[in-house]
Specification:
Blueprint: H1 2-13, H2 16-43, H3 56-59, H4 61-78, H5 80-86, H6 91-124, H7 131-159, H8 162-187, E1 192-193, E2 196-199, E3 205-208, E4 212-213, H9 223-234, H10 236-244, H11 251-275
Antiparallel strand pairs: 1-4, 2-3
C-alpha cells in the first residue's frame, strides 16, 4: 500500500489539477488577508489576522471536490485502476491507498492556505485568540477535511466517470454548505422582533410599537432546538459554519461525529468498489 501511495503522490505533484488548485487556494489566502488588512486600515481598530484564517474549512472543499473526481476519474479512463489489479494489488488496498492520497491532498491545501495567509498576516497584524484556539480549530478542520476526502473518494471510486463524479461532488458540497447555513440561521433566530424606530432631529431614538414574538425562534431546552443543535454538530455543513466562526463549544462532539462519518464512508466505499465491474 505504501508503494501505491508513493506512486500516487509522485503523479499528483505533476498533475495540472493539483497545481491549479494549490495556486487558487494560495491566491485566495493572500487576497483574504490583504482585504482584512485594508479594512482595518480604512475603518480603524486593532487588526487581527485570525478573523478569517479558518474560512479554509469552507474554501478547501471545492478544490478537493474537483481534484478528487478528476484524479480518480482519470485513473478509470486511463486503465490505471485495472492495471493495478492485473499486477496483483487487491481492491481494498487500491481503495485505501487512493483514500490516503486524497487525505494528504486535502491537508496539503490546508497547509498551503495557512502558509500563504499567516506569513503576511503575522507580519501585518496580530492574533485575537490564544494558541489553544488554533490547536482545537485546526484539529476540527483536519477531521472535517478527512470526512470530505472520504465522501469524495467514495463517490469517485463508485461512479468512475470524471464528469459525473465532479458534478456529484460539487452538488453535494453545495448541499452541505446550504444545509449548514439554514441550520445555523435557524438557531440564530432572535426571540423577539425589534420594533421599527426612527431617529429624531435631536438624535434620540423613538420606537414604534413593542417587541413582537418571533414564531421561528427555537426556545432554549426545547426538543426542536436540541435536534437542530445535533444536526449542526453532526452534518459536515454545520461543522463548517462553526469552524469558520471559531466556535469551540462543541468541538469534541464534532470530532467524534467526523470519526463516525469517516468510518461509515470508507466502509461503504470499500464494499461498493469490491463489487464494481472495471471492464
Amino acid at each position: 500500500m505504501c508503494n501505491l501511495i508513493s506512486a500516487n503522490m509522485k503523479r499528483i505533484w505533476k498533475t495540472r489539477a493539483f497545481q491549479i488548485g494549490a495556486i487558487i487556494v494560495a491566491g485566495l489566502a493572500l487576497f483574504q488577508i490583504l482585504m482584512n488588512y485594508r479594512d482595518y486600515a480604512v475603518y480603524g481598530g486593532t487588526p487581527y489576522y485570525d478573523n478569517a484564517l479558518f474560512s479554509i474549512a469552507a474554501v478547501a472543499v471545492f478544490p478537493m471536490a474537483a481534484f478528487v473526481s478528476l484524479y480518480i476519474g482519470t485513473e478509470y479512463s486511463d486503465g490505471t485502476l485495472r492495471n493495478k489489479i492485473v499486477i496483483g494489488h487487491g481492491r481494498v488496498e487500491i481503495y485505501i491507498s487512493n483514500l490516503c492520497t486524497m487525505l494528504i491532498v486535502g491537508w496539503l491545501f490546508l497547509l498551503i492556505w495557512s502558509v500563504a495567509y499567516l506569513v503576511p498576516g503575522i507580519v501585518l497584524m496580530e492574533s485575537g485568540n490564544p494558541p489553544v484556539v488554533f490547536i482545537f480549530i485546526y484539529a476540527g478542520i483536519i477531521c472535517e477535511l478527512a470526512v470530505f476526502s472520504a465522501i469524495f473518494t467514495w463517490i469517485s471510486m463508485v461512479l468512475g466517470k470524471k464528469a459525473g463524479s465532479s458534478i456529484a461532488c460539487m452538488l453535494l458540497t453545495l448541499l452541505f454548505l446550504l444545509s449548514g447555513t439554514v441550520i445555523q440561521s435557524t438557531l440564530d433566530q432572535e426571540e423577539y422582533y425589534a420594533p421599527a424606530y426612527r431617529v429624531t432631529e435631536s438624535g434620540e431614538i423613538e420606537y414604534d410599537g413593542e417587541l413582537e414574538p418571533n414564531p421561528n425562534y427555537l426556545p432554549e431546552g426545547s426538543s426542536e432546538r436540541a435536534l437542530y443543535e445535533f444536526l449542526l454538530d453532526f452534518t459536515p455543513g454545520g461543522q463548517i459554519m462553526q469552524l469558520c466562526a471559531i466556535r469551540l463549544e462543541r468541538i469534541g462532539y464534532m470530532i467524534i461525529y467526523d470519526l463516525g462519518w469517516f468510518a461509515a464512508m470508507t466502509g461503504a466505499g470499500v464494499l461498493m468498489f469490491r463489487r464494481k465491474s472495471l471492464k
